[in-house]
Amino acid sequence: MGISQNSWNQVTYGEKKVCRTMARDEDLGFRAAHWADLYSLLHGALPPGIILWGHQFLRSHNPEGVSFVRVQARVLSTSEVVEITGNLLVAADGCLSSVRRQFLPDFKLRYSGYSAWRGVLDFSGKENSEMITGLRRASGKENSEMITGLRRAYPELGNCLYFDLAHKTHCVLYELKNKRINWIWYINQPEPEIKGNSVTMKVSENMIKKMNEDAEGTWVSELARVIKETKEPFINVIYDSDPLPQLLWGNMVLVGDAAHPTSPHGLMSTNMSILDAGVLGCCLEKSRLENLASALEKFESIRLPVVSRQVLHSRHMGRVKQGLSLPGHRCFDPNDATQEDCTLLQQRNMPFFGYAPLLV
Ligand SMILES: Cc1cc2nc3c(=O)[nH]c(=O)nc-3n(C[C@H](O)[C@H](O)[C@H](O)COP(=O)(O)OP(=O)(O)OC[C@H]3O[C@@H](n4cnc5c(N)ncnc54)[C@H](O)[C@@H]3O)c2cc1C
Protein backbone atom coordinates (compact mmCIF):
# COMPACT_ATOMS: atom_id res chain seq x y z
CA MET A 1 0.00 0.00 0.00
CA GLY A 2 2.77 2.46 0.88
CA ILE A 3 6.10 3.17 -0.75
CA SER A 4 9.22 2.25 1.27
CA GLN A 5 11.19 5.44 1.84
CA ASN A 6 14.39 6.82 3.39
CA SER A 7 14.68 10.30 4.86
CA TRP A 8 16.74 13.33 3.88
CA ASN A 9 17.12 16.50 5.98
CA GLN A 10 18.45 19.54 4.16
CA VAL A 11 18.78 23.24 4.91
CA THR A 12 17.58 25.91 2.46
CA TYR A 13 19.54 29.14 2.88
CA GLY A 14 20.49 32.46 1.33
CA GLU A 15 18.71 34.57 -1.27
CA LYS A 16 19.46 31.96 -3.92
CA LYS A 17 17.86 29.28 -1.72
CA VAL A 18 20.76 26.88 -1.92
CA CYS A 19 20.11 23.44 -0.36
CA ARG A 20 22.70 21.60 1.72
CA THR A 21 22.29 18.08 3.12
CA MET A 22 22.30 17.84 6.93
CA ALA A 23 21.38 14.24 7.72
CA ARG A 24 20.03 11.18 5.98
CA ASP A 25 18.46 7.95 7.17
CA GLU A 26 19.39 5.13 4.81
CA ASP A 27 17.44 1.84 4.91
CA LEU A 28 14.74 3.52 6.95
CA GLY A 29 12.03 1.32 5.44
CA PHE A 30 9.42 3.96 6.21
CA ARG A 31 6.06 3.37 4.52
CA ALA A 32 4.04 6.41 3.59
CA ALA A 33 0.34 5.90 2.93
CA HIS A 34 -2.56 8.24 2.37
CA TRP A 35 -4.83 7.96 5.40
CA ALA A 36 -7.89 7.13 3.29
CA ASP A 37 -6.06 4.10 1.81
CA LEU A 38 -5.03 2.88 5.26
CA TYR A 39 -8.43 3.40 6.84
CA SER A 40 -10.31 1.67 4.02
CA LEU A 41 -7.95 -1.31 4.38
CA LEU A 42 -8.62 -1.51 8.14
CA HIS A 43 -12.34 -1.01 7.66
CA GLY A 44 -12.46 -3.71 4.99
CA ALA A 45 -10.88 -6.20 7.42
CA LEU A 46 -13.70 -5.80 9.97
CA PRO A 47 -16.83 -7.97 9.96
CA PRO A 48 -19.72 -6.12 8.26
CA GLY A 49 -22.11 -4.17 10.50
CA ILE A 50 -19.70 -3.97 13.44
CA ILE A 51 -19.36 -0.19 13.26
CA LEU A 52 -22.23 2.07 14.33
CA TRP A 53 -21.61 5.15 12.20
CA GLY A 54 -22.96 8.52 13.31
CA HIS A 55 -23.01 7.79 17.06
CA GLN A 56 -21.46 10.47 19.24
CA PHE A 57 -20.14 9.35 22.62
CA LEU A 58 -21.70 11.44 25.41
CA ARG A 59 -20.79 9.76 28.68
CA SER A 60 -20.07 6.39 30.23
CA HIS A 61 -20.71 4.75 33.55
CA ASN A 62 -18.69 1.92 35.08
CA PRO A 63 -19.69 1.54 38.75
CA GLU A 64 -16.97 0.13 40.96
CA GLY A 65 -17.05 -3.64 41.36
CA VAL A 66 -19.32 -4.04 38.33
CA SER A 67 -18.10 -5.87 35.22
CA PHE A 68 -19.89 -3.84 32.56
CA VAL A 69 -19.70 -0.34 31.10
CA ARG A 70 -22.77 1.61 30.09
CA VAL A 71 -22.32 4.20 27.35
CA GLN A 72 -24.72 6.91 26.28
CA ALA A 73 -24.40 8.04 22.68
CA ARG A 74 -26.28 10.49 20.48
CA VAL A 75 -27.46 9.24 17.10
CA LEU A 76 -26.49 12.21 14.94
CA SER A 77 -29.18 11.69 12.31
CA THR A 78 -32.08 11.79 14.81
CA SER A 79 -30.53 13.36 17.97
CA GLU A 80 -31.91 10.36 19.86
CA VAL A 81 -29.77 9.29 22.85
CA VAL A 82 -29.20 5.54 23.03
CA GLU A 83 -27.58 3.38 25.69
CA ILE A 84 -25.06 0.67 24.85
CA THR A 85 -23.74 -1.82 27.40
CA GLY A 86 -20.50 -3.78 27.06
CA ASN A 87 -17.69 -5.44 28.99
CA LEU A 88 -15.04 -2.95 28.01
CA LEU A 89 -14.87 0.60 26.62
CA VAL A 90 -11.83 1.19 24.40
CA ALA A 91 -11.59 4.94 23.87
CA ALA A 92 -10.01 5.67 20.48
CA ASP A 93 -11.59 9.09 20.15
CA GLY A 94 -8.51 11.08 19.25
CA CYS A 95 -6.42 13.79 20.89
CA LEU A 96 -9.48 15.75 22.09
CA SER A 97 -10.97 12.58 23.64
CA SER A 98 -14.31 13.05 25.43
CA VAL A 99 -13.82 9.76 27.28
CA ARG A 100 -10.50 11.00 28.69
CA ARG A 101 -12.19 14.27 29.79
CA GLN A 102 -14.49 12.27 32.09
CA PHE A 103 -11.53 10.96 34.07
CA LEU A 104 -9.18 13.91 33.72
CA PRO A 105 -11.50 16.94 33.64
CA ASP A 106 -8.62 19.40 34.17
CA PHE A 107 -6.44 17.89 31.45
CA LYS A 108 -5.29 20.41 28.83
CA LEU A 109 -3.38 19.83 25.62
CA ARG A 110 -0.08 21.70 25.30
CA TYR A 111 0.18 24.01 22.29
CA SER A 112 3.50 23.29 20.58
CA GLY A 113 4.19 26.89 19.54
CA TYR A 114 3.50 26.22 15.85
CA SER A 115 0.83 25.14 13.41
CA ALA A 116 1.09 23.22 10.16
CA TRP A 117 -0.15 24.18 6.72
CA ARG A 118 -0.66 21.00 4.78
CA GLY A 119 -2.08 19.57 1.62
CA VAL A 120 -1.95 16.76 -0.92
CA LEU A 121 -1.22 17.62 -4.55
CA ASP A 122 -2.81 15.15 -6.94
CA PHE A 123 -0.85 14.97 -10.19
CA SER A 124 -2.62 11.95 -11.64
CA GLY A 125 -4.30 14.29 -14.10
CA LYS A 126 -7.72 13.02 -13.02
CA GLU A 127 -8.48 16.01 -10.80
CA ASN A 128 -7.32 18.68 -13.21
CA SER A 129 -9.52 18.01 -16.16
CA GLU A 130 -11.19 21.42 -16.19
CA MET A 131 -10.87 23.34 -19.43
CA ILE A 132 -8.88 26.53 -19.25
CA THR A 133 -9.19 28.80 -22.30
CA GLY A 134 -9.89 25.75 -24.41
CA LEU A 135 -6.79 23.82 -23.28
CA ARG A 136 -6.56 21.06 -20.72
CA ARG A 137 -4.58 22.22 -17.74
CA ALA A 138 -1.21 20.47 -17.91
CA SER A 139 0.28 21.56 -14.57
CA GLY A 140 -0.99 18.59 -12.61
CA LYS A 141 0.52 15.72 -14.62
CA GLU A 142 3.60 13.54 -14.37
CA ASN A 143 5.23 15.09 -17.45
CA SER A 144 4.23 18.66 -16.58
CA GLU A 145 6.91 21.27 -16.06
CA MET A 146 5.95 21.47 -12.37
CA ILE A 147 6.44 17.76 -11.67
CA THR A 148 9.61 17.35 -13.76
CA GLY A 149 11.02 20.45 -12.02
CA LEU A 150 10.10 19.02 -8.64
CA ARG A 151 11.79 15.71 -9.44
CA ARG A 152 14.92 17.59 -10.50
CA ALA A 153 14.99 19.57 -7.23
CA TYR A 154 14.14 16.49 -5.12
CA PRO A 155 15.75 13.64 -7.09
CA GLU A 156 14.85 10.88 -4.63
CA LEU A 157 11.19 11.81 -4.33
CA GLY A 158 9.25 8.56 -4.27
CA ASN A 159 12.00 6.79 -2.33
CA CYS A 160 12.69 9.46 0.24
CA LEU A 161 10.97 11.75 2.74
CA TYR A 162 12.41 15.25 2.41
CA PHE A 163 12.68 17.56 5.41
CA ASP A 164 13.57 21.07 4.28
CA LEU A 165 14.77 23.24 7.14
CA ALA A 166 15.08 27.02 7.07
CA HIS A 167 15.34 29.65 9.81
CA LYS A 168 12.82 28.63 12.54
CA THR A 169 10.64 26.61 10.20
CA HIS A 170 10.59 23.32 8.32
CA CYS A 171 8.60 21.57 5.64
CA VAL A 172 8.09 17.85 5.02
CA LEU A 173 7.58 16.60 1.47
CA TYR A 174 7.04 13.09 0.17
CA GLU A 175 5.29 11.16 -2.54
CA LEU A 176 2.30 8.92 -1.93
CA LYS A 177 1.01 6.16 -4.13
CA ASN A 178 -1.22 7.03 -7.09
CA LYS A 179 0.66 10.18 -8.05
CA ARG A 180 0.14 12.35 -5.02
CA ILE A 181 2.56 14.62 -3.17
CA ASN A 182 2.04 15.22 0.55
CA TRP A 183 3.51 18.35 2.13
CA ILE A 184 3.39 19.74 5.67
CA TRP A 185 4.83 23.17 6.49
CA TYR A 186 5.29 24.03 10.19
CA ILE A 187 5.08 27.73 11.11
CA ASN A 188 5.79 29.23 14.55
CA GLN A 189 2.91 31.40 15.70
CA PRO A 190 0.80 32.21 18.77
CA GLU A 191 -1.91 29.65 19.49
CA PRO A 192 -4.80 30.23 17.07
CA GLU A 193 -8.35 30.19 18.32
CA ILE A 194 -9.99 26.99 17.14
CA LYS A 195 -13.71 26.44 17.10
CA GLY A 196 -15.47 23.16 17.82
CA ASN A 197 -13.96 19.80 18.61
CA SER A 198 -11.18 19.70 16.03
CA VAL A 199 -7.53 20.70 15.67
CA THR A 200 -8.08 21.43 11.98
CA MET A 201 -8.67 25.11 11.23
CA LYS A 202 -10.75 26.62 8.47
CA VAL A 203 -8.72 28.90 6.21
CA SER A 204 -9.75 31.89 4.11
CA GLU A 205 -8.61 32.78 0.58
CA ASN A 206 -6.54 35.63 2.07
CA MET A 207 -4.74 33.25 4.42
CA ILE A 208 -3.91 30.95 1.49
CA LYS A 209 -2.65 33.91 -0.55
CA LYS A 210 -0.40 35.08 2.29
CA MET A 211 0.88 31.53 2.87
CA ASN A 212 1.79 31.21 -0.83
CA GLU A 213 3.67 34.52 -0.75
CA ASP A 214 5.59 33.37 2.33
CA ALA A 215 6.36 30.02 0.67
CA GLU A 216 7.93 31.83 -2.29
CA GLY A 217 10.16 33.76 0.10
CA THR A 218 11.18 30.70 2.11
CA TRP A 219 11.44 27.62 -0.10
CA VAL A 220 12.94 26.70 -3.45
CA SER A 221 10.59 27.67 -6.28
CA GLU A 222 9.74 24.02 -7.07
CA LEU A 223 8.38 23.43 -3.56
CA ALA A 224 6.61 26.81 -3.45
CA ARG A 225 4.91 25.90 -6.73
CA VAL A 226 3.66 22.55 -5.40
CA ILE A 227 2.24 24.35 -2.38
CA LYS A 228 0.57 26.94 -4.61
CA GLU A 229 -0.97 24.35 -6.95
CA THR A 230 -2.44 22.26 -4.12
CA LYS A 231 -6.20 22.47 -3.88
CA GLU A 232 -7.73 23.25 -0.50
CA PRO A 233 -4.69 23.41 1.77
CA PHE A 234 -5.63 23.51 5.45
CA ILE A 235 -4.11 24.09 8.88
CA ASN A 236 -3.58 21.65 11.73
CA VAL A 237 -2.84 23.31 15.05
CA ILE A 238 -0.12 21.18 16.65
CA TYR A 239 -0.66 20.00 20.21
CA ASP A 240 0.74 17.28 22.41
CA SER A 241 0.64 16.54 26.11
CA ASP A 242 2.94 15.37 28.85
CA PRO A 243 2.64 11.59 29.16
CA LEU A 244 -0.50 10.58 31.05
CA PRO A 245 0.01 8.88 34.43
CA GLN A 246 -2.35 6.04 33.49
CA LEU A 247 -4.32 4.68 30.54
CA LEU A 248 -7.10 2.80 32.30
CA TRP A 249 -9.91 3.44 34.71
CA GLY A 250 -11.84 0.30 35.67
CA ASN A 251 -13.17 -1.26 32.46
CA MET A 252 -12.24 1.74 30.31
CA VAL A 253 -8.97 2.08 28.47
CA LEU A 254 -7.49 4.81 26.28
CA VAL A 255 -5.66 4.02 23.03
CA GLY A 256 -4.22 6.07 20.16
CA ASP A 257 -4.10 9.86 20.29
CA ALA A 258 -6.59 9.78 23.19
CA ALA A 259 -3.91 7.98 25.22
CA HIS A 260 -0.90 9.92 23.93
CA PRO A 261 -1.58 13.18 22.10
CA THR A 262 1.69 13.71 20.26
CA SER A 263 3.30 16.10 17.82
CA PRO A 264 3.83 14.51 14.41
CA HIS A 265 7.64 14.68 14.07
CA GLY A 266 8.26 10.98 14.58
CA LEU A 267 5.95 10.42 11.58
CA MET A 268 4.57 7.44 13.43
CA SER A 269 1.60 8.47 15.58
CA THR A 270 -0.71 6.26 13.53
CA ASN A 271 1.80 3.50 14.00
CA MET A 272 1.65 4.08 17.77
CA SER A 273 -2.16 3.87 17.66
CA ILE A 274 -2.10 0.65 15.66
CA LEU A 275 0.43 -0.87 18.06
CA ASP A 276 -1.81 0.08 21.00
CA ALA A 277 -4.63 -1.85 19.36
CA GLY A 278 -2.35 -4.80 18.55
CA VAL A 279 -0.97 -5.06 22.09
CA LEU A 280 -4.41 -4.64 23.66
CA GLY A 281 -5.73 -7.40 21.40
CA CYS A 282 -2.86 -9.74 22.39
CA CYS A 283 -3.39 -9.04 26.11
CA LEU A 284 -7.15 -9.65 25.89
CA GLU A 285 -6.69 -12.80 23.86
CA LYS A 286 -4.24 -14.17 26.40
CA SER A 287 -6.19 -13.32 29.55
CA ARG A 288 -9.78 -13.75 28.36
CA LEU A 289 -12.77 -11.96 29.86
CA GLU A 290 -12.46 -13.52 33.34
CA ASN A 291 -9.10 -11.77 33.74
CA LEU A 292 -10.00 -8.48 32.10
CA ALA A 293 -8.41 -6.36 34.85
CA SER A 294 -5.05 -8.10 34.58
CA ALA A 295 -5.16 -7.92 30.75
CA LEU A 296 -5.70 -4.16 30.91
CA GLU A 297 -2.94 -3.71 33.48
CA LYS A 298 -0.58 -5.68 31.26
CA PHE A 299 -1.52 -3.50 28.29
CA GLU A 300 -0.81 -0.34 30.29
CA SER A 301 2.50 -1.68 31.60
CA ILE A 302 3.68 -2.51 28.06
CA ARG A 303 2.54 0.59 26.22
CA LEU A 304 2.81 3.48 28.69
CA PRO A 305 6.64 3.48 28.97
CA VAL A 306 7.00 3.20 25.18
CA VAL A 307 4.57 5.93 24.12
CA SER A 308 5.72 8.27 26.92
CA ARG A 309 9.27 8.31 25.59
CA GLN A 310 8.11 8.64 22.00
CA VAL A 311 5.87 11.65 22.77
CA LEU A 312 8.72 13.48 24.52
CA HIS A 313 11.22 12.68 21.78
CA SER A 314 8.81 13.92 19.10
CA ARG A 315 8.30 17.14 21.08
CA HIS A 316 12.07 17.65 21.21
CA MET A 317 12.44 16.99 17.45
CA GLY A 318 9.74 19.59 16.75
CA ARG A 319 11.44 22.21 18.92
CA VAL A 320 14.79 21.51 17.26
CA LYS A 321 13.42 21.81 13.73
CA GLN A 322 11.37 24.92 14.53
CA GLY A 323 14.35 26.67 16.18
CA LEU A 324 12.49 26.98 19.50
CA SER A 325 14.40 27.20 22.77
CA LEU A 326 15.88 23.93 24.02
CA PRO A 327 17.18 23.00 27.46
CA GLY A 328 20.11 25.32 28.21
CA HIS A 329 18.32 28.16 26.33
CA ARG A 330 19.95 27.15 23.09
CA CYS A 331 18.12 27.22 19.75
CA PHE A 332 18.96 24.98 16.83
CA ASP A 333 20.04 26.92 13.77
CA PRO A 334 20.32 24.78 10.62
CA ASN A 335 22.86 27.22 9.14
CA ASP A 336 25.16 26.76 12.06
CA ALA A 337 24.57 23.11 12.99
CA THR A 338 27.32 20.80 14.19
CA GLN A 339 27.63 17.21 13.01
CA GLU A 340 26.18 16.13 16.35
CA ASP A 341 23.14 18.40 15.85
CA CYS A 342 22.61 16.94 12.39
CA THR A 343 22.67 13.37 13.69
CA LEU A 344 19.83 14.27 16.04
CA LEU A 345 17.63 15.00 13.02
CA GLN A 346 17.57 11.36 11.95
CA GLN A 347 14.18 9.69 12.22
CA ARG A 348 15.70 6.46 13.50
CA ASN A 349 16.59 8.17 16.81
CA MET A 350 12.95 7.87 17.84
CA PRO A 351 12.86 5.55 20.89
CA PHE A 352 11.62 2.06 20.00
CA PHE A 353 11.94 2.96 16.31
CA GLY A 354 12.72 -0.53 15.05
CA TYR A 355 11.20 -2.57 17.83
CA ALA A 356 8.43 -2.02 20.37
CA PRO A 357 7.47 -4.85 22.72
CA LEU A 358 4.17 -6.57 21.95
CA LEU A 359 4.09 -8.71 25.08
CA VAL A 360 6.29 -9.09 28.17
C1 LIG B 1 0.11 17.70 10.89
C2 LIG B 1 0.00 16.25 11.22
C3 LIG B 1 0.79 15.32 10.55
C4 LIG B 1 0.72 13.97 10.87
N1 LIG B 1 1.53 13.10 10.21
C5 LIG B 1 1.53 11.82 10.54
C6 LIG B 1 2.40 10.90 9.89
O1 LIG B 1 3.17 11.26 9.00
N2 LIG B 1 2.37 9.61 10.28
C7 LIG B 1 1.56 9.17 11.26
O2 LIG B 1 1.60 7.98 11.58
N3 LIG B 1 0.70 10.00 11.89
C8 LIG B 1 0.67 11.31 11.56
N4 LIG B 1 -0.18 12.16 12.19
C9 LIG B 1 -0.98 11.70 13.33
C10 LIG B 1 -2.18 10.86 13.02
O3 LIG B 1 -3.08 11.57 12.22
C11 LIG B 1 -2.85 10.47 14.38
O4 LIG B 1 -1.89 10.04 15.29
C12 LIG B 1 -3.84 9.34 14.20
O5 LIG B 1 -4.87 9.77 13.34
C13 LIG B 1 -4.43 8.93 15.56
O6 LIG B 1 -5.40 7.96 15.37
P1 LIG B 1 -6.58 7.79 16.41
O7 LIG B 1 -7.46 6.72 15.84
O8 LIG B 1 -6.05 7.62 17.78
O9 LIG B 1 -7.35 9.19 16.44
P2 LIG B 1 -8.12 9.94 15.26
O10 LIG B 1 -7.57 9.60 13.93
O11 LIG B 1 -8.16 11.38 15.67
O12 LIG B 1 -9.59 9.32 15.32
C14 LIG B 1 -10.49 9.63 16.38
C15 LIG B 1 -11.89 9.27 15.91
O13 LIG B 1 -12.78 9.42 17.03
C16 LIG B 1 -13.94 10.10 16.58
N5 LIG B 1 -14.53 10.79 17.74
C17 LIG B 1 -14.04 11.85 18.43
N6 LIG B 1 -14.88 12.19 19.41
C18 LIG B 1 -15.92 11.31 19.36
C19 LIG B 1 -17.13 11.14 20.13
N7 LIG B 1 -17.43 11.93 21.16
N8 LIG B 1 -17.97 10.13 19.78
C20 LIG B 1 -17.68 9.30 18.73
N9 LIG B 1 -16.56 9.42 17.98
C21 LIG B 1 -15.70 10.41 18.30
C22 LIG B 1 -13.43 11.07 15.51
O14 LIG B 1 -14.49 11.45 14.65
C23 LIG B 1 -12.40 10.20 14.80
O15 LIG B 1 -12.98 9.42 13.79
C24 LIG B 1 -0.17 13.52 11.88
C25 LIG B 1 -1.00 14.43 12.54
C26 LIG B 1 -0.91 15.79 12.22
C27 LIG B 1 -1.79 16.76 12.96
From TrEMBL:
Gene3D superfamilies: FAD/NAD(P)-binding domain (3.50.50.60). Signal peptide: none annotated. InterPro entries: DHP_3-monooxygenase, FAD/NAD-bd_sf. Coiled coil: none annotated. PANTHER family: MONOOXYGENASE-LIKE, OS06G0597600 PROTEIN. This is Salicylate hydroxylase.
